[in-house]
């Protein structure tokens, strides 16, 4: 089965979608057991016949570190995540993949496995809420990001050459001093954002979660905003 889901989320779904038919059937039987009879996939996608027991088994296996189980769940919930995160997906597919993977991990980890009957519905509700919130934050940031005008860039360049006296010549020093107060991960994340590099790569480089990187960036921006208030961007 062709699976074009963007990485890193697609790296997980392909653990299930790229299995051959026979191999997939073996994994389905291994994960769900003989007790889930009939169309096994239907018990996961729409767990009504067995009260959600098959879906619960799949979640338990995924939380235990089974890559195929997690791939199956990621594939199962992918349509919801695509629909709720479409704005982010169209703007930055890699960040969408990182966000949705982080949200899926977190939601499954906090799922109440004792509630078998409504487990999938509750997981879907949490995924909808969390991805929707992240997309809203993404749109908020985009609305407040103002591009630097070309004329203003030329004025800054001339000021750096000593041909203009209206610009802040000490911005570089103050910015360097402010960044020196942060840890290496935070500095790396801030530079990555400035260079339009997905924060997922920063998380991978430092071996921490995507959510942790986002939190560090958020805290850093709160610190930098008042310290560099006198250098507020101008538009031309």
Structure description:
It is a single chain. The chain starts with 8 loop residues before the first helix and ends in a 9-residue tail after the last helix. The chain has helices at residues 9-17, 21-32, 40-45, 53-63, 67-84, 86-91, 93-109, 119-144, 150-160, 171-180, 184-194, 199-206, 210-227. The longest helix has 26 residues, at 119-144. The model is unreliable at 146-154 and 162-169 (pLDDT under 50). The chain is an all-alpha fold. It folds into two domains: 9-143, no CATH class; 150-231, Arc Repressor Mutant, subunit A. Helix 7 (93-109) runs antiparallel to helix 8.
Question: Which keywords apply here?
Answer:
mainly alpha; elongated; 0% strand; 69% helix; 2 domains; Arc Repressor Mutant, subunit A; 13 helices; 236 residues
- Please work out how many helical segments DSSP would assign: 13
SS elements, strand count = 0
> What does the radius of gyration come to?
23 Å
Largest sheet: none
Q: Which strand-content bin applies to the residues?
A: under 5%
Low-confidence spans: 146-154, 162-169
Structural class: mainly alpha
Share of residues in helices = 55-70%
What is the CA–CA distance across the termini? 51 Å
Shape: elongated
What is the domain tally? 2
What is the succession of H and E elements?
A: HHHHHHHHHHHHH
Q: On the 0-100 scale, what is the average pLDDT?
A: 77
Helices and strands in order, then pairings?
Layout: H1 9-17, H2 21-32, H3 40-45, H4 53-63, H5 67-84, H6 86-91, H7 93-109, H8 119-144, H9 150-160, H10 171-180, H11 184-194, H12 199-206, H13 210-227
Helix pairs in contact: 1-5, 4-5, 5-8, 7-8, 11-12, 11-13, 12-13
